[in-house]
Structures are given as structure tokens and as C-alpha cells.
Design goal:
binds magnesium ion; 19 strands; alpha/beta; 423 residues; six-stranded mixed β-sheet; binds adenosine-5'-triphosphate; disordered C terminus; Nucleotidyltransferase, domain 5; five-stranded mixed β-sheet
Length: 423
């Protein structure tokens, strides 16, 4: 496998185990970037709030999603990058130190110092998922993003250490392995989503990613050039649907449909005379209700979710550093009025984040609900690239995968563009 201008490529598969659906995204990674070859997307009832609650259902959905994706892509899938989420995820700051004795910092030193940051005791039932560098410090100079080539005697790294409860992660791995697949890595879902939707500029000047899925709302904050916070709010689109079902006394499936079709997160965006037909439960006849009533049910829940996000952002003390505002993603972000409501509650500019920077059958991964699946492919591509660099293809460390220039927000050299420049 090589990206050095040859025609060789690598297949990378992202597997998003969401609370409402399992999505497998097959990407082909080469010197030109990522080409989406196939997508399998099937409903899943095996997870609750981002955590596997029924292995049988989950295994079945994974099989179906993988079958569909490999049929479409025309490749055999053997290994996947899997997403994990759930309110068992925690993050905190940790430091690592290593001696460099006056010579230049190398890639190996970065690995050693990151290893040091990971070497802290965690509870017996927890495991470290990621050590995400926030800044490097060479001797007394702090705020360094890429210390390779700098010289000094002491290299320090400050990381955001993401930990997870071991058993939910094992259940994800077990479910996937029961389908005869290998797990290349488990990846925090909001980290994957962020990879798919953010531009380098946004990461640079500070941004909050809010992924509102079916079961959870995942928050990730980039500030000062690194990830400084990640957490999971245990509420999402399913709670909105349940509220609608209870509030309008209609079956869950109808509540879900009404929410998607007519739901609005801000009541004042709806005209007073708009009406919707609400099917009854248990043989009761359908009745007409004001659409305003539907949004009166939805608004408090959405408000509650964004208020909790705001509280967590404030708690980190990073509100001022999030200069580019918030990027909203996940299926529930599609509802009318979500962006406006988020702007009001969070008090910052908000945009909708859909996957960008990939080619191929992009119409199949358009929409915020595919951010995690595509992000997992990007994450996998980056891992392969890192491995290649480690193996000595280049001794120069580079920034994490860039988002290809698309539309007005995204600028930069493009995915793997630097690699072409480097050779
Ligand atoms: N057009 C729409 N309007 C409102 N809500 C929508 C719309 N489309 C999807 N949703 C909601 O988005 C949610 C699913 O989003 P998504 O696919 O991102 O979740 P997931 O990844 O399965 O779950 P999670 O990330 O919480 O584990 C559901 O609650 C669904 O009702
Ligand atoms: Mg999700």
C-alpha cells in the first residue's frame, strides 16, 4: 500500500452503530483522497442511548449493513473502524513528558511522549480510547502544534484523554466480531463526525461540534488548535419523538413521521392557522391539531438539550475561544428551526454540518446523519497514513487529514494535497 502517486489504494470501512441505524461506509483511499464506493444503511433496534443493549439485533443489523455496502462497493469487507458513544464516555486533561537531550524532536519522540500521557491509572472497568494532543511544550515554550524538528531537552504534551467504560466497548467489538469482521480501531463517534464536517479553519479558531442523534447528543470542543472537551448528553431525537407520541397521544411510528414532516424547534416560526392530522391510538379516529401544538411539545426538549450543551461549554471555560461557533450534525439536526434554536440558546453562530471532502457516490452520504460513518473512513485513512509515516515513508509529521475545499466555508489544500506536495 502506498499513496506516493501510484495507482495503489486501500479500502477503509467505517461502521457507525447508531441508536437508530447501522451505517457501513466503504471508502477507497489513494493519493487523490477518499472515494465513497458503497454505503449500507439499515435500521437498528439493538442500541439504547448509543450503547448495545441487544447483541442479536445489533449483529443482524451489522450483517445487513455490511452485506449491502459490500454488494454496492463490489469489495469484500474484512475489517472496520467502529464508532463508540454513550454517556459512559469521559474526558480529562493529562500530561506526558520525555527527554530529548538537546537534539531535534522526531516522530518517535511524539509517540513516546503520547505514550507517557496515556500512562496514568484508570479505574479497572474503564479503558483509554484516545489521547488527543492539545499542545506540545518544548522546554519552556508552550502552545506548539507540531514540535517535529524543534530542539530542546524536554518535550511535554498536554492531551485530552478520552476514557470509556470497558464493557460497552467490548460489546461493540463482540457484535462486530460475531459477524466475522475484525475491528481495526474503536473511535469516539463525535471525533469521527468532526473529521467529516469541519474545516481546518474552524478547528484552528475554535468550534463546538454538536451531534444530535437518536439516543444521544455528543459534544466536542476544538479550541487553541486541539480538542479540549468531549462529552455525551444522554438525550436525542428519540426523546423528541416520545414526547410527541405522549403529548399528541399517537403511536410512536406516527409521532416519528409527524416530527420529521412537520416538526419545528421554534414555535414562533409557525403560522397560527397551520394544521396537521394526528392518527389516534387504539382505534381512535384521527383528529386535526394545530402544528403549533406539535412544536410546543418539541421546543422544550430541544431547548433542554441545547441548554445542557451550553452549560457544558460554559463549564469548560472555553466559550470565548469558540470563535467560529457551533456546527450542528446528526439526523435530528435536520428538523426545521434547529439551527435558529441552537443560535438562540448557545448564543453563537450555528451551521449545519454534512460530510464534505469525499468523492464517489457522495449523494448516498449527504446529510448530517452520515457524518459519523464518513468520519470513521477519514479517521481510518489518517491511521493508515500515520502508520506509513511511522514506517519511514516520511520522517516529517503533518497535520491531521484536511477537509477538501468545498463551498464557501472550506478552504485549504485538500485531503492528501500536502502528501503530493511532500513528494
Ligand atoms: N428530517 C428530520 N427531522 C427531524 N428529525 C429527524 C429527521 N431525520 C432524522 N431525524 C431524527 O434523527 C435521529 C437519528 O439521527 P442519527 O441517524 O444521527 O442517529 P443515530 O446515529 O442512529 O443515533 P446516536 O448517534 O444517538 O446513537 C432520529 O431521532 C430521527 O428521528
Ligand atoms: Mg450517531
Amino acid at each position: 500500500m502506498t499513496y506516493q502517486g501510484s495507482s495503489e489504494s486501500e479500502i477503509v470501512v467505517g461502521l457507525d452503530l447508531g441508536t437508530t441505524k447501522v451505517t457501513a461506509v466503504v471508502g477507497e483511499v489513494d493519493a487523490e483522497g477518499i472515494t465513497i464506493l458503497g454505503v449500507g444503511n439499515v435500521p437498528c433496534r439493538g442500541l439504547r442511548k448509543g450503547v448495545v443493549s441487544n447483541i442479536e439485533y445489533t449483529v443482524r443489523s451489522i450483517r445487513e449493513a455490511i452485506d449491502a455496502a459490500q454488494t454496492m462497493a463490489g469489495v469484500e469487507i474484512t475489517t472496520v473502524y467502529a464508532g463508540v458513544a454513550g454517556s459512559h464516555i469521559r474526558s480529562h486533561t493529562s500530561d506526558g513528558v520525555c527527554a530529548i537531550s538537546g537534539r531535534e524532536v522526531t516522530r518517535m519522540d511524539l509517540e513516546r511522549v503520547l505514550e507517557g500521557a496515556r500512562a496514568i491509572p484508570v479505574d479497572a472497568d474503564r479503558m483509554i480510547l484516545h489521547a488527543l494532543p492539545r499542545e506540545y511544550i518544548v522546554d519552556n515554550q508552550d502552545g506548539i502544534r507540531d514540535p517535529i524538528g524543534m530542539s530542546g531537552v524536554r518535550l511535554q504534551v498536554r492531551v485530552n484523554l478520552v476514557t470509556a467504560a470497558t464493557s460497552p466497548v467490548q460489546n461493540v467489538i463482540r457484535s462486530i466480531e460475531r459477524c466475522g469482521l475484525q475491528v481495526a480501531d474503536v473511535v469516539l463517534e463525535p471525533l469521527a463526525s468532526a473529521e467529516a464536517i469541519l474545516s481546518e479553519d474552524e478547528k484552528e479558531i475554535g468550534v463546538a461540534v454538536v451531534d444530535i442523534g437518536g439516543g444521544t447528543t455528543d459534544l466536542m470542543i476544538y479550541a487553541d488548535g486541539g480538542i479540549c472537551h468531549t462529552s455525551v448528553v444522554p438525550a436525542g431525537g428519540n426523546n423528541i419523538s416520545s414526547d410527541v407520541a405522549a403529548g399528541l397521544r399517537t403511536p410512536m411510528a406516527e409521532a416519528e413521521r409527524l416530527k420529521r414532516q412537520y416538526g419545528c424547534a421554534l414555535g414562533r416560526m409557525i403560522a397560527d392557522d397551520e394544521e396537521v392530522e394526528v392518527p389516534g391510538v387504539g382505534g381512535h379516529a384521527p383528529r386535526r391539531a394545530a402544528r403549533r401544538l406539535l412544536s410546543d411539545i418539541i421546543e422544550p426538549r430541544v431547548d433542554e438539550i441545547f441548554s445542557e450543551v451550553r452549560r457544558r461549554v460554559e463549564e469548560t471555560g472555553m466559550l470565548e475561544q469558540i470563535s467560529s461557533g457551533c456546527v450542528l450534525t446528526g439526523g435530528a439536526a435536520l428538523m426545521e428551526g434547529m439551527i435558529e434554536c441552537a443560535e438562540e440558546v448557545l448564543g453563537m453562530p450555528v451551521r449545519l454540518g454534512s460530510p464534505v471532502g469525499v468523492r464517489g457516490i457522495v449523494q448516498l452520504v449527504q446529510g448530517p446523519q452520515y457524518a459519523t460513518g464518513v468520519g470513521l473512513v477519514r479517521y481510518g485513512a489518517q491511521q493508515i497514513l500515520d502508520q506509513q509515516l511511522r514506517q519511514g515513508a516520511a520522517a516529517v509529521a503533518r497535520p491531521i487529514v484536511e477537509v477538501e475545499p468545498t463551498r464557501e466555508v472550506h478552504r485549504g489544500r485538500g485531503f492528501f494535497g500536502w502528501l503530493r506536495d511532500a513528494f
